[in-house]
């Protein structure tokens, strides 16, 4: 069953198209990574899916309903980011108590255990938490609410490395025990890729691709070698990224579409894997060059 | 085991190799039930779909078989198949890499074989 | 995972409960405002001396209009505060849509009006008690010291109606100002302009509006006029904000 269906989804903000003819579906009980550079439209998409923002054009369905301003969606889809607002007249334990009244699947025991594990004080006020602590607290709300659609937008902002890895493990364990549809947006694909089933890559409001993570890892290979050899090998192939290491030495990232890799090795080209996160960065670069071109 | 996340091998391949190694070590015997995809996901903090892919890889190679509703079990021929595969693929691959490196360094075939022999003797001496 | 279905009524009830907790400051500020108003009144608002037939007479008027005016101002300000960006976003921390949020806000304002109405009228009697016991006076004239309970009740109901109407107007104005960031600046001028234009084109319309609301002495038309107007204000506010996006 599809939890999310988008068809030609467009969001116009002033003159800019934050989302541009986006079409995709997300299956029930999968973990999807929403990847893209700053301003690619990740947050816009998630806010539309959560029913907070309104689409300009196209159709968007969550649990077969239009999400905007919809109580069913509000009760079953939670959007967690570092801008979450809670009344500063409530203490942290008040907030957890209130969340429990609103969310039908709320697990108070899990919330309490996480709350203690990350050593929060019940009388603290949300506004006064540090950036990382705020993210951690919001994450607790996101996990314990057990919403059928749970969306984390850059959930690890400000978290230290140890809290981040705790979060990923907590997320996975709770997902295994209570499967649900989860979307995580992140700049750090390398940190979350093991958790993911699929990756949705956005580039300037458009879908670049929507692939299982394993296919993404074999999507392209890196070729390093003498420039003319690399050129010869990648002729008629889709070159994603290329960088001149030295005058006569080139590193190219080429789409792995029946590439003659053995021949390449014989030509003295070093064939390397391209990690999913590197690949996403290369794919969504505005120009084929890089920061070096600025300094030319 | 800690998974190698530098992208050198897909996670699901690493999972299937880990199970193979468990069988080789004798930790998983013939007709014994292997870990479920959820258990594996929990053990390695990976997506259960990835773990399932690793298990399916082994089913396709007749190393595991399905019992409906019960899970996956080790086949009779699993051990033989794994040894065979490791010999023909992993070991050969390693040797190929060694051969390429030897060629680059102008190490002769005789010299390479001698090096290998020396390593083998050392290993046996340790054991 | 099966979906949780929550009706509008359930969500509104939960939100109202949440808001009473989150806005408890509204009630403590009510107490503060009325105490200040009372203290100002105890000083006496009009003081004058006169001589009639060689008899010198000093009289002080103790009026409860302070309390009433302050309470009206209090509900007006809180109605506007409820529509600000921060408060709207806080309302959407948990399950909500625009309709449920608006209805729970309106309900909250009605609850606050009831609290404000009761305390404002009763504090008038408190003032009388204070003046009677603590201030050295010779005569207490002008109003009766004791009122029959029926009249007290009427006063409370009327005060609640005033507050609900003022609250609904404040809420509507607040919602309108949220539509565009220029509106908080422009709206006062626009409103003043409309009122001036109204007075120019239809002279005496101010008086007419005042009479329409404040010269009504029959209970039911009075209730109808006040509650009806408040319902219209709330409904317009709900309509205007139904398309608003949250967390812009």
From TrEMBL, chain A:
Pfam families, A to Z: ABC_tran
Keywords, alphabetical: ATP-binding, Nucleotide-binding
Superkingdom assignment: Bacteria
SUPFAM superfamilies: P-loop containing nucleoside triphosphate hydrolases
Gene3D superfamilies reported for this sequence: P-loop containing nucleotide triphosphate hydrolases
All residue ranges annotated as the ABC transporter domain in the record: 4-229
InterPro entries documented for this protein: AAA+_ATPase (IPR003593), ABC_transporter-like_ATP-bd (IPR003439), P-loop_NTPase (IPR027417)
SMART domains assigned: AAA
Molecular function GO terms recorded: ATP binding; ATP hydrolysis activity
Protein name (database record): ABC transporter
The organism of origin for this protein: Oceanobacillus arenosus
From TrEMBL, chain B:
Keyword DNA repair: no
PROSITE patterns, per the entry: HTH_GNTR
Coiled coil: none
GO molecular function, one term: DNA-binding transcription factor activity
Keyword RNA-binding applies: no
Keyword annotations: DNA-binding, Transcription, Transcription regulation
Protein name according to UniProt: GntR family transcriptional regulator
UniProtKB/TrEMBL annotation, chain C:
Transmembrane segments: 21-47, 59-81, 102-135, 155-176, 183-202, 222-240
This protein's UniProt keywords: Membrane, Transmembrane, Transmembrane helix
Lineage top rank: taxon: Bacteria
UniProt protein name: Uncharacterized protein
Biological source species: Oceanobacillus arenosus
Phylogenetic placement of the source organism: Bacteria, Bacillati, Bacillota, Bacilli, Bacillales
